[in-house]
Amino acid sequence: MAKRHERAEHRQGGTALEPSWICCQLGAREHYAVPTYFHRRGRLAALLTDAWIRPNTLAEKLTLGVFRPLRDRFERHLADAPVHHFTSSLTRFEAGVRLQCGIGCWDRIQSRNSWFQQRAIAQLNKLGLLETRNDAGPPVVFAYSYAARRIFEVARGAGCRTVLGQIDPGPYEEDLVACLYDSRRALEPDWHPAPSSYWCEWREELALADRVVVNSRWSHDALIGKGVCADKISIVPLAFELPAQTQSAKKEYPAAFSEDRPLNVLFLGSLTLRKGIAEMLEAAELLGRAPAVFWFVGTPGIRLPSQATANPRIRWLASVPRTAVHSFYQVADVFILPSHSDGFGLTQLEAQARGLPIIASQYCGEVVEHGENGLLLPEVSGLVIADAISWMLTNPSQLSKMSQNALERSIQFRSEMVLKKLETCLNRPSHMAFT
Question: What topology is assigned to 2-239+415-427 in CATH?
Answer without folding.
Answer: Rossmann fold (3.40.50)
